[in-house]
Amino acid sequence: MDTRLLKTFLLVAQLQNITQAAEKLNFSQPTITAQIQNLEEIFGVLLFERQGKKLIITEAGNELYKYAEHMLAIYNEAQMALASYRKKSAALTLGVSTHIINYLLPPILKKYQSRVPDGSVCVRLFMSTKETLNGLLENQFYIGLVHDKISHEQFEQFKITTEEVIWAGHHDLLAKHKSSNCISDYPFINYTTDTVFRSKFNNLFKEVGCNSTIEYSDTQAVKQAVLNGLGISILPFSLIKEEIADGTLVQITNTPPLFLDIYVLFKRNAVFSPSIYKFLEILSELPTADSKLKAFIDSKKFKKSN
């Protein structure tokens, strides 16, 4: 049996509301309904009755509730027991919510390779934080890297670093506009509405009078447009620091400072392989990492050793 069905059942029983359960699990309401119906078909009993807008658990549902909790507890115990048999060089799979995080990963992965020489890494890129969360919930991977602060009882989350974002344009374009610090004087290369930059900074774009001429969903595409003098934009400093250093691109000053926090995210009760612990240790060593991440790793190791 798919353990997700039992997890969904327990949450619906606790909340007595399918809509709220769907929001917490990042699933659609029809998906939650289908999972409950699937469980009812498996056991051949009715688990909930609807009274107005409220769901009431049946007597059979109450009986299953006790067993579901016990079954999931045994499942988690089995995971912990078998964790010690996993190879230290097990593949590390990461879920990343944007291209921007990809640009910050190479030095981290280089350090990981030095500590796990025979380990392999798979980085899966998603277009949104929600997609990354769903991947974690479905156990497609165990570690996610996202820009958004998440409030979700199933996840642990720690800030690991902050990315500086700057306003920049091609040297020739700025010279044409006499190096004006007024954003509205320039054509603006914007981000599509489904991107992190647009969702985070759209109100600011409106406040400073950005004159959007082109939109891209990819940070690298925005960079290329800026390099070709099509307009100015905001870009991660780590992505354009070489072009800033050689003068190809110029930072526009007297503009609001912009920063993006980056978080590591994983399921609260996840059982990690040694390779995942190594990766988390490297993240905890970053200068701006939340000190609680190291404390969390140490507490997990202590429990494992006992």
Automatic annotation (TrEMBL):
Transmembrane segments: none annotated. One of its GO terms (molecular function) is transcription cis-regulatory region binding. SUPFAM superfamilies: Periplasmic binding protein-like II, Winged helix' DNA-binding domain. Residues 1-58 form the HTH lysR-type domain. Pfam families: HTH_1, LysR_substrate. Keywords: DNA-binding, Transcription, Transcription regulation. It comes from the Bacteria. InterPro entries: LysR_HTH_N, LysR_subst-bd, WH-like_DNA-bd_sf, WH_DNA-bd_sf. This is LysR family transcriptional regulator. It comes from Thermanaerosceptrum fracticalcis.
